[in-house]
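Quick start: read one record
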Amino acid sequence: MKVRTVVLLFLLSVCFCAVANAVESPMAQLKPTLKSLTDLLADEGLKGDAHRDERRSRIMKAIKVGFDFEEMSKRILGRTWQEISPEERERFTRQMIKLLENIYVGKLESYSGQQIEFQEERVKGKRAQVSTTIDNQGVKIPVHYVLNLTDSRWMVYDINIEGVSLVSNYREQFKSILRTDKFAGLMKVIEEKNRSFEKGKGSL
């Protein structure tokens, strides 16, 4: 191997290591996102039905910084994701974001100052898990965030609460619908569910 080639490979490896070391840890990147979320939930000026739309809009804007909803949607849909068009993928992702807003943000709106404690992080290549607990009246609820490294950003694509994976839960729920009614039938169910939430009577 020529000296010039060896030097070039060495320089490339140094540059790669510098970039890798510059990336913040998954926990360090997740903390600001969760703090933004809890700050918005605790904001007295955003509480109540009168501020519902503004509150949810600001919450979703805050968590989109650290959550990869397209990757989450892809994993929920499984192999069907490969069978549908880019437009259908976008439509599914958009409706899943709305469903998660209606269900999970809706539940979080009862937040009353519970503390998030960061426990540990585990990194394997471009995948990581950040483990936390939420102290709810003395009961420690384990919540694990599963992340992918995209460019220089760790993004959450799954949440495991007390041993239940959000992605696995929805994948199982949607499997039977896809088997009988295909993708079009699943979209109809999700869109109807989101409309029912807007009327104040949805659940899934």
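The chain has a mean pLDDT of 87.
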